[in-house]
Structures are given as structure tokens and as C-alpha cells.
């Protein structure tokens, strides 16, 4: 985090230049490492959920006097609105992570006065909103899959699609860590801007 | 929003005092108005959802040759994990809105140097995360209620519990505006802190 401020009387012009560069650069090395981590997390979350599919057989009783037929059934991420939103949201957050990481690295390398601190902090805040909403939706769908809802006569399905549910849990857990990383990035931005304002 | 900064040479001590007060006061009148608005929105959202209940009758076929029996069924917010989380989350956000509004008003009234800008910005950020996650969960549950999920044989229920679903939609819409208000408060904090750091 940059905390450099203009020291009056101590090479004023250079100090001013450094302070302007610091104000433009979004969070430095810690921010870049966190952004790369969030990129990896949301990428893996989107891929794990996007490839989540399980075909299994369930017994189906046609005539009570005969043994049940074994019917093949498939669970797929695209069968749920929540999981579709999850894949799209994590893919978009992953792209944003890459772009914001690139912008941060270019600002560091070129030492130009690009005031990226505010747009990147607001971008990170949008990612917090998007990720928390998709995690909420996916967790609700996951819980219904695990426990069902007896009041609405929605049966649980994770007893049939065990592996599908396990992979979905892994994807949601990864995305949740990604959401916490973006939460941390916004907190760091707030603290960094506050330190500079002192 | 406060943008006052120390003007060197122009009554330095007073200027420093004003700037310190400005840095401690979280967003001024706009912030206080938004906080009061968020308080009202989340309060009404929690109450509308918390009182949401509908009893109706559905036909139930016992014997194929006889006319169906009319059975009373009830939909209630507490039958869903998502809606339970919604009520608790909106109630907590409502309490936070009241406390942060009080803190902001007291800071303004006493003109004390209480540096509340950072803790309140982080508090607002937590509210963004909480509200967006509960809206995601409730919208997923609401969509399943409206359309069902044919792949999992979960039938839609909003054709039976129409009024219940309508009230839930109103509550979710109010809470969504509340979430956007907190999003706006965090954006204002970031911009305000950035202006002071210039």
C-alpha cells in the first residue's frame, strides 16, 4: 500500500510527483497478488461448475407387481438458473480480474499518472455485489438440493446426484473465497485512500 | 460531501481543524439522508416478508371416482431458508442503518474529531455483501416458486400462493433498492476519500 505523501520543503516537486503516482496506482504489489488469486479462484469456480454433470440411474416403478425399471437421469449445471448465473458471473469476474491486474501492472511499469484508484475500487465493489448475489442464489439452490422443501413437496436430489452436488459445493466454496478477496481489496482501497487523505 | 482541505498560509490552525473534522464525518447530509432511506427500505422489506403468509385450498384427489377434497394449505416465509435469511439480514441491516445514522448525526452535532469515515465505509461494505447475498438467495427461491424446475420435478407454487408470491416480490424489490443505496454510500465514501487525498 502506498502511504507516501508530499513532505513540504523536502524536494517539493519530486515529492508531489511521487504522491500523484501513488494516488494513481491501485494498491501496489499486495493488490496485484490478490487480483491474481481472485482470477484463479473465479476461473476454477466457473470451470468446475461449467463442467458439472452427472448421469445416474434411478428405479422407476411402472407396475407394482413387477420389479422397478432402471431409468437414466442426468443432472447438469444448466438445469438451474442459479448455477447458470454462477458460471456467467464467475467468468465475468475472472475477465475483470485479468483486466484490472493488467491495468495495475501497466500503471506500475509506465509510472504514468493514471488515476486508477477510484475506478478500480468501484470495479472491485461491483465484483463484491455480483459474487455475493450469485453465491446467495447458488447456496439457496444447493440447500434445496440437499434437503428439499417438505412444505412445497420439493424432494431433495443430492442423495441421487451425490457427485454433482459435491462439485457444486467446491465451486461455490472457491467463488466465496474470491468474493472475500474482492471484499478485502475494497477494504484496502478505503484504508489506503484514508491514509493518503491524512 | 466534505472536500475542504488545509489551505496553507490561510489561517492554518483553523483550516487544519476543519479538515480533521471533515475527515471524521462520514459523508454529511447526503450520507445521512441515504442512511435514513436505507433504514426505511430494509425495515419495510423485513416486515412485509416477516408477515407474509397465505392460506388457500387446493383440490386433493383421494379416490378417482369421487370429486376431489378441498384441502387447506399454508405458505409462510419461515418455510424457506432463503426467506428466513432475508428477514434476519434485512432486520440486521436496518439496525446497522439506525446506529450508523446516529453515529453520523452525533459526529456532526458534537463537532468532535471522531474518525468514523473508515469504519462506516467498511460497515456499509458489509451491508452490500449481506444484502446482495440475501437478494440472490431470495430471488432464486422466488424464481423456483414461479417457474418450478422440471428437471428435478419441483412444481411451481406461485399459481397456488399468488398473494404470498406478490408480497415476497415487493419485499425483495425494496431490499434491492436498499442494497443499491448501500452500494452508493460506499461509492460516495471512496470518491470523498479520494478527493481529500488529492
UniProtKB/TrEMBL annotation, chains A, B:
Annotated membrane topology: Multi-pass membrane protein
Subcellular location: Cell membrane
Keyword Repeat: no
A Pfam family matched in the record: CASP_dom
Main subcellular localisation: membrane
Keyword Cell membrane among record annotations: yes
Membrane-crossing segments per the record: 33-51, 85-107, 114-137, 169-193
Keywords: Cell membrane, Membrane, Transmembrane, Transmembrane helix
Boundaries of every Casparian strip membrane protein domain copy: 27-180
Any single Gene Ontology cellular-component annotation: plasma membrane
Protein family membership: Belongs to the Casparian strip membrane proteins (CASP) family.
Subunit structure: Homodimer and heterodimers.
Name of the molecule in the record: CASP-like protein
Source organism: Rhynchospora pubera
Organism taxonomic ancestry: Eukaryota, Viridiplantae, Streptophyta, Embryophyta, Tracheophyta
